[in-house]
Specification:
The chain is mostly helical. It contains 16 helices and no strands. The chain has one domain: Na+/H+ antiporter like fold (Up-down Bundle), CATH 1.20.1530.
Length: about 375
């Protein structure tokens, strides 16, 4: 246990220094935190290894980050962007899926394996973009709202795609009878989650705002707010949907209640000074660049280019068709590049189910880390043009 204490101390010091250096070069501090994880991890100095305790704190960090994003999102603006966000999410799934699958076919011939590579590239991790948008003060711009909305919708649609491919892969080994049942079960769980989200967003603010201020004190709201973020995240995980989506939905649900600003301030303190730095560092810790050799370097480069272009073109073109400005289309495309923990989870699912081989795991992992590292820079440049 004492080694965990030392690991956490190293992470906190390294990410803070990394953030300060990044800020010195007028870049988002999250970029420095991500690179710090690579430096102190197995790729370079090997000071910190991923452990169960670090993983747990990392998961809490991203849950609090998304809860905070929900709290600070203008729900009225999000409602206005609903249709646009849905279309952007679909565009950001279809193109990376096609591009990724075709790219994998240049090196491998297994249909399910190649299809799953495309599936991995459909993922979007909004947590990195949220932190950068917060730093830039752009979270509630039209582009920021659409990035958030599209990424959340992307997570739900992505679940269907992942489950569909996993079901197809399983049925190819056991026979086709189980495929339809698997898809029906997944569809039912997603429908149930969507219904829960609608109920929470529609009724929770009104119920909480009716409680007298004497009973709903700021500290009481903070404790119960954080607790329910974890509870909704737990329910989401049991429905097969990422806990971060549940935490974000709960944040949205109470984003218009009394004392919301006090709650957001307290959550930001918990998150910013402990949990969030561990989350960003853990992404860098997850990759070991020393395992890369020339045989997989070309595939890695191709998938990396595919991952970037798939989101910029897929999301950006749809945003343009929806009437957004060219600068906003670029900002949305850049904001959707990061794959982060969502793609890491998907990659692990593919590896554990036997659909992708350990050989393919390394390049996809590098692509996930690479897109996550490049997103802060891309977003910074995209918003600097306006």
């Amino acid at each position: 246990m004492e080694k965990v204490f030392l690991d956490i101390a190293i992470i906190l010091i390294a990410t803070k220094i990394g953030g300060m250096v990044s800020k010195k070069f007028n870049m988002p501090q999250v970029l420095g935190a991500l690179i710090s994880g690579v430096i102190i991890g197995p790729s370079l100095f090997g000071l910190v290894q991923v452990s169960h305790q670090i993983t747990l704190l990392s998961e809490l960090g991203v849950a609090m980050l998304m809860f905070l994003a929900g709290l600070e999102t203008n729900i009225n603006e999000l409602k206005k962007a609903g249709r646009t966000s849905l279309l952007i999410a679909i565009g950001g799934i279809v193109l990376p899926l096609i591009f990724g699958t075709l790219s994998a076919y240049m090196f491998y011939s297994n249909f399910y394996e190649n299809l799953f590579i495309g599936v991995i590239l459909t993922a979007t991790s909004v947590s990195i973009s949220v932190e950068v948008l917060n730093e830039l003060g752009k979270l509630n711009t039209r582009a920021g709202i659409n990035i958030l909305g599209a990424a959340v919708i992307d997570d739900v649609i992505g679940l269907l795609v992942v489950s569909f491919v996993l079901a197809l892969g399983a049925s190819s080994k056991t026979g086709g009878g189980s495929t339809l049942n698997s898809l029906l079960i997944v569809g039912g769980k997603v429908t149930l989650f969507c219904a829960l989200a609608i109920v929470l967003i529609a009724f929770i603010p009104g119920l909480l705002n009716k409680i007298p201020s004497k009973k709903l004190k700021p500290d009481v709201l903070t404790i119960f707010g954080v607790a329910f973020a974890l509870i909704i995240g737990y329910i989401s995980e049991n429905l097969g949907i990422a806990a971060i989506t549940g935490a974000y939905v709960w944040g949205l649900s109470i984003s218009s209640v009394k004392h919301k600003d006090f709650l957001a301030d307290k959550v930001k303190t918990i998150s910013s000074y402990l949990l969030t730095p561990i989350f960003f560092a853990s992404i860098g810790l997850a990759v070991n660049l020393q395992t890369v050799d020339s045989s997989i370097l070309l595939l890695t480069i191709l998938l990396f280019i595919t991952a970037i272009l798939g989101k910029i073109l897929g999301c950006g073109l749809v945003a343009k068709l929806c009437g957004l400005k060219n600068s906003e289309c670029l900002q949305i495309g850049m904001g959707m590049i990061s794959r982060g923990e969502v793609a890491l989870i998907t990659t692990n699912l593919g590896l554990q189910s036997g659909i992708i081989s350990p050989e393919l795991f390394v390049p996809t992992l590098i692509v996930v880390i690479g897109t996550t590292l490049i997103t802060p820079i891309a977003l910074k440049l995209a918003f600097s043009r306006t």
